[in-house]
Amino acid sequence: GDSVTQMEGPVTLSEEAFLTINCTYTATGYPSLFWYVQYPGEGLQLLLKATKADDKGSNKGFEATYRKETTSFHLEKGSVQVSDSAVYFCALSHTGNQFYFGTGTSLTVIP
Amino acid sequence: GAGVSQSPRYKVTKRGQDVALRCDPISGHVSLYWYRQALGQGPEFLTYFNYEAQQDKSGLPNDRFSAERPEGSISTLTIQRTEQRDSAMYRCASSLAVTGRAGETQYFGPGTRLLVL
């Protein structure tokens, strides 16, 4: 069945450090891939998405590229800020009817 | 409304009691989804609706769990005879289009944290 595997956390970085959170998936066909973010005390928010191979999703300085050959959708940011501290979830969806989420990666950015 | 809302935000109940969790989707959103999220895990699909029709309930853990959306807007997830293992965050999401479109974004509510004593 479909599944998503995320890099385990927690991750702690200093401000302005480079961030990578790994995400790989298992799925038949060509799913859409998403990164959701959950800030403390809030619900999940869409961060970015990509709907086909080689697409790059980007938002708020974060980027992720849909790599079909490696079944990956790694999240990157060149310079993290304290305000990026949150839990990040990688997810996939085939037709939008249900999402399969990874277990989440907690990020803490220290000044 | 501005976003998906859920109520109550927190619910503490005794084992064996029934609970009803409410979701109010974004106005005009056709599809509505329920997820359960255990501590330290990602959301796990329970069921979803297109309009008032329940399309897939394969994720409901057992027959104590049920959901309805009678008028195609507000939805209620009901758990009968609650057990301690039901304790989790229950999240609702909605999306604009009828499911079947790749890349359709789901918008999540803040969740209801359920604690069964």
Oligomer: heterodimer
Profile the largest sheet of chain A. Answer: 6 strands, mixed
Considering residues with a beta carbon less than 8 A from a beta carbon on another chain, report the largest interface and each chain's count: A-B, 28 and 31 residues
Strand elements of chain B, count: 11
Number of alpha- plus pi-helical segments of chain A: 0
Mean pLDDT of chain B: 92
Percent of residues in beta strands of chain A:
over 45%
Structural class of chain A: mainly beta
Unreliable runs of chain A: none
Shape of chain A: globular
Helix content of chain B: under 10%
Q: Roughly how many Å is the radius of gyration of chain A?
A: 13 Å
Radius of gyration of chain B: 13 Å
What would you call the shape of chain B? globular
Mean pLDDT of chain A: 92
State the low-pLDDT regions of chain B, or none. Answer: none
Class by alpha and beta content of chain B:
mainly beta
Q: Would you count the extended β strands of chain A for me?
A: 12
List the helices and strands and how they pair.
The complex is a heterodimer of chains A (111) and B (117).
Chain A: E1 3-6, E2 11-14, E3 19-21, E4 23-26, E5 32-38, E6 44-50, E7 56-59, E8 62-65, E9 75-77, E10 86-93, E11 100-101, E12 105-110
Chain B: E1 5-7, E2 10-13, E3 19-24, E4 31-37, E5 44-50, E6 53-56, E7 65-68, E8 75-79, E9 88-95, E10 107-108, E11 112-116
Parallel strand pairs in B: 2-11
Antiparallel strand pairs in B: 1-3, 3-8, 4-5, 4-9, 5-6, 7-8, 9-10, 9-11
